[in-house]
Amino acid sequence: MSKEEFISSGLLELYAMRISSPEETQIVEETLKQFPELKQELEDIEISLEKYARENAIEPPVSAKERLFSRVFPEETKEENKRVTGIQINKKSETPMFYKWIAAASIILLIGSIIVNYSYYEKYHDAKQELLIAEQKIEQQQKSNLAMSRDMEIVTNKYAEPVVLKGTPKAPDAMAKIFWMKNTGDVYINPTNLPQAPAGKQYQLWAIIDGTPVNGGMIVTEKGTYHIQKMKSFGKAQAFAITLEKTGGSPTPTMSEMVVIAKM
Fold this sequence. Notes:
Elements (H helix, E strand, L loop, with lengths): L2 H6 L2 H6 L5 H13 L3 H18 L6 H11 L1 H10 L7 H65 L4 E8 L7 E7 L5 E4 L10 E9 L2 E8 L9 E2 L8 E8 L11 E6 L1
Helix pairs in contact: 4-7, 5-6
């Protein structure tokens, strides 16, 4: 939460009135440590609360006070009346109690306002989070559509010569397809039908040139979502093969881990 969002959340007001929950209190105190300049904001709020209570205090007539106390404390009022019969009430000593009543009412109204504001803030925050999630999903879908569009451009390219790599005894059901661009020598691979690579392992492409295996690059199969990938280009090749190597690749192929192979 940024400093501006924290100020507008209403937590400082709850803290100043000593009615914040333990969790909210912890949040406020941690935020005050993070932003020391907010201590002045807290002091301003405390001063404003006290000023608001004093400015809006109304001194009611003595009769109103007597009626109020007779309803709230009926038994005590009767006893008090017996004790002070004939004695005039000293308004100067009694009035502060009514300031407290008015201040309490003012604070209750302020708390209500804070709760409403906080509720709106929570709804705004939730809506913002939902919008962010929706935007992320749209972005992912756009990336997926773009990848599919690129795949189709390669597959339908008039210079693309498809080469099917079939499974070896190591992985008889495995298969991959290479698209050899006859005009440029570029190599693309579709690894869709390769088994999921185990943890710590990664597929590596090899081109067999003059009987020697040449590294064609690492194949990305992250989270099982495969797309056609551009590999290293070769002027010529007699065959292609894919082996399962440790993550990051190997300078030479592990022949016992060869999963597919094809001759040109």
